Amino acid sequence: MMKKLTVAGFLLTLLSLSLFGQDDILKQDLVGANNPLEYSASFLTIAPDSRSGAMGDVGAATSPDYNSMRWNPAKYAFIESDMGIAASLTPWLRNLVNDINLYYLTFYKRLDKKQTIAASLLYFDLGEIQFTNSEGAPDGQHLPYEMSFDVAYSRAFSERISGGVAFRYIRSDITGGAVVEGTETTAGNAAAADVSIFYLNDEVNLYDNFHTFTFGINISNIGNKISYTEIQKDFLPTNLKIGSAFKYNIDDYNSLTLALDLNKLLVPTPPQEINDSTFFGEPNDVSVAEGMIQSFYDAPAGWEEELNEIKYSVGAEYWYANQFAVRAGYFHEHHNKGNRKYFTLGAGLKLNVFTIDFSYLVPVKQNNPLANTMRFTLGLDFQAFRVQQKQG
Fold first, then answer.
1. Could you give the CA distance from residue 156 to residue 160 in angstroms, rounded to a whole number?
2. What is the pTM of this model?
3. CB within 8 Å of 380: residues ≥ 6 apart
């Protein structure tokens, strides 16, 4: 009896190893397959300001500025000025069309030494769409747009650590109520939140001088699914951003900052099917909370594909006399997950009251629709404005 059980166990082991080997071989077919993540309201992933746009889209741990809302709201707690406002313009996809623009308006106000509030408006003007009927004849026009309105609160817990929360209303009107394949569409609406932390140490002693190390984490766009029809609901681009930066003070007039950001979208990876009988991955029709957790382990090709979903940005910023800045950076997204790869560069000029920033995008591959993307940002420092008025 024992001998029969042993033989049966041996045969079962061989069978399971054989099946595992076949499964592993089939799974290898998915390595290198194009499988981008699926979500809506993708305008929330675009860098809207010139400073970060010139540094490869880094921002989780760079020094606090007008546009910290987009990158890490917790940074506002350590911003130097007590109040400021900034406006940004990004002409989008100019190689394809000439009427798409991204507008970004931000405002912050310090309540006291530890607390700061902020608000922002992001508006994505998608130009004009000409609808046609089944016969190709004109059937009306629509001016599609997407927008988000944010409010944030940031508080310093100590001299080095702060936290922030932001609440966001999102509206996406891209169809104008058109009937698509027999289904009536509506504008999508959603609510979301960000949770962030920021660490700042400006007493790093190196080569007889003090330098600054910063670290930040921001989980953004945690919210309900957005829907344009009664049939389908889509995930928002919930994102985990982790970044660090080091500012090296060369002397009293010159400084150089190097920054690195890692981004992981917390949305499910679409499952893939190799043939009619072999299916890999997890179902992506899950709740938002389940999707966030599942996003860390559900890639059909395993950990290799999971790691491919991490985007990284590197950036550098040089300041002279805290008045003139030169910036550069690189953004990398795996070719199976969207394939956005580009270099960025830009400059900034800080006057007594105003800050002017500019950035320019250079894609790795030619004939890229993102080529020649430019961003412009104008900031106003109210504290410097009041000081200038008193002196005048």
1. 8
2. 0.89
3. 84, 85, 86, 353, 354, 355
Give whole-number Cα distances, 92 to 270, 360, 361, 365, in Å: 28, 12, 11, 18
Q: 3-state DSSP call for residue 341?
A: strand
Predicted confidence pLDDT, tens digits, the chain (392 residues) = 434 445 445 444 444 434 444 455 455 556 667 889 999 999 999 999 999 999 999 999 999 999 999 999 999 999 999 999 999 999 999 888 889 999 999 999 999 999 999 999 999 999 988 777 666 667 678 899 999 999 999 999 999 999 999 999 999 998 887 776 677 889 999 999 999 999 999 999 988 899 999 999 999 999 999 999 888 899 999 999 999 999 999 999 999 999 999 999 999 999 887 766 556 777 888 999 999 999 999 999 889 999 999 999 999 999 999 999 999 999 999 999 999 999 999 999 998 899 999 999 999 988 888 998 999 999 999 887 777 777 76
Question: How many of the other CB atoms lie within 10 Å of CB of 296?
Answer: 13
Phi-psi region of 176 (alpha: psi -120 to 50; beta: other; left: phi over 0): left
For 95, the token pair is: 């190689």
Phi and psi, residue 77, nearest 5°: -65, -20
Give the angle subtended at the CA of 168 by the CAs of 127 and 293, to the nearest 5°.
110
56: left (phi over 0), alpha (psi -120 to 50) or beta: left
Q: How many CA atoms lie within 13 A of 138 on its CB side?
A: 5
| Cβ neighbours of residue 366 closer than 8 Å, sequence gap 6 or more | none
Question: What 3-state class would DSSP assign to 246?
Answer: strand
Contact 295, 331 (CB under 8 A): no
Helix (H) or strand (E) holding 290: helix 288-294
